[in-house]
Amino acid sequence: MGNSALKAHLETAQKTGVFQLTGKGLTEFPEDLQKLTSNLRTIDLSNNKIELLPPLIGRFSFLKSLALNNNKLTALPEELCELKKLEALHLNGNHLRQLPAAFGHLSALKTLSLSGNQLQTVPTQLCGLRHLDVVDLSKNQIQNVPDTVGELQAIELNLNQNQISQVSVQISHCPRLKVLRLEENCLELSMLPQSILSDSQISLLAVEGNLFEIKKLRELDGYDKYMERFTATKKKFA
What we know:
The chain has helices at residues 3-16, 195-198, 214-217, 223-237, and strands spanning 18-20, 42-44, 65-67, 88-90, 111-113, 134-136, 144-145, 156-158, 166-167, 179-181, 204-206. It is of the alpha/beta class and 238 residues long. It has one domain: Leucine-rich repeat, LRR (right-handed beta-alpha superhelix). It has a 9-stranded parallel β-sheet with strand order 1-2-3-4-5-6-8-10-11. The longest helix has 15 residues, at 223-237. One of its GO terms (cellular component) is cytoplasm.
């Protein structure tokens, strides 16, 4: 892509606060964007070939939405965690194995998409985020859901298509969790805590494609209580 095209994009972004340059084969984060650190509210560089996010990302102090889906990122810089206004972070389809240690500093974050990466665990850093609504960790390599998950504040947690064979009973204590997706994992019925049914806020539990028949789930103690929540929620949205 020529400089003149990039310049035109930058001029538009200066006016709109939105910089979108997707599917252009970019191999690096456009350095010229640093001229707009105080303008930009949205950056979308999805469907490129970017391998590194430079430390200067931390300077975009007004950024609300950052999308880098389908790039070649293997790690994220600590500086990303300085984005105090960031509400949406979309990093599907990269090669991320972990999140920066300070990830919990992204205090405004509401939506986090990390589908199709190489995470092997549910990152503990997520538990510090008080405004999370949706967390998508589907299509990773997660094998178990640890005790720390009980502190997660998310409303929806998507763990579809991982390798999960164990789920901590603490997941029942998530204060805001309404939707839990565990489809296509390696769960035996005995490894699914019954307290999810009998004693949680969860009103939609998706567990198709595991190592048990769904009808067996209906025989568990607490299933009636779960169905009450499920039905009440459906009515609300009907």
